[in-house]
Amino acid sequence: MPHRTRTAHDPVHHPLFARFYARVAPALDERAGVRAHRRELVAGLSGRVIEIGAGAGLNFAHYPGTVSEVVAIEPERLLRRLAVEAAVRAGVPVDVVPGAAEALPVKSEAFDAAVVSLVLCSVRDVRRSLAELRRVLKPGGELRFYEHGVARGRVPAQVQRALDRTVWPVLFGGCHTARDPLAAIRAAGFEQVTCRRLLVPGGRIPMPHAPHVLGSARRPADG
């Protein structure tokens, strides 16, 4: 299928994490059942779709044929190169584009749907990123999300916040474990927010980013 890539200044540069992610993510998808969640994330979409933080393009293979085009935004150079390779194998046209979630390089109200997948944890500004997603969606357009966030228990949440203040974002490409994606999506003005909570196994050692949510929301039809 047709695909393109564009070159520009990289808004994000995490080369060590990108290499680590590129190596472990496909195996983790298989072991932890994440691949099935990715498939569910994009099931039933149609028209033009924008995907933010596309990473190595692990979602591309799951887009249904009813999608006419995917514009995939990925700021990290190595991951973007891998996304271009994944775009070649995709069953729908994918345009891989450099850019930051806080300033999307696309026109307003240009997309029928938007997809975020394990990315709101690492954007620099969640509020601005969601405002941009709302801007580029058509009125009534759908936001699909698969994210991890703050744990429900007091002690696990305290551990997450402690990690976020110290080593975790440095080691894992800006990832923050204690963010609340559902609260942020609602605060950004999206409506009809529905989701189900998932617990993705991390092996023998509990992972601080394990609580996941998979769901959808909509930009209001009147604004």
TrEMBL record:
GO BP, one example? methylation
* One GO molecular-function entry: methyltransferase activity
Supply the alphabetized keyword list. Answer: Methyltransferase, Transferase
Signal peptide (residue range): none
InterPro entries annotated for this entry? Methyltransf_11, SAM-dependent_MTases_sf, Thiol_S-MT
Q: Which Pfam families match?
A: Methyltransf_11 (PF08241)
Its transmembrane ranges are none
UniProt domain Methyltransferase type: residue ranges = 51-144
Query: What name does the UniProt record give this protein?
Result: Class I SAM-dependent methyltransferase
Tell me the classification of the organism that encodes this protein: Bacteria, Bacillati, Actinomycetota, Actinomycetes, Kitasatosporales
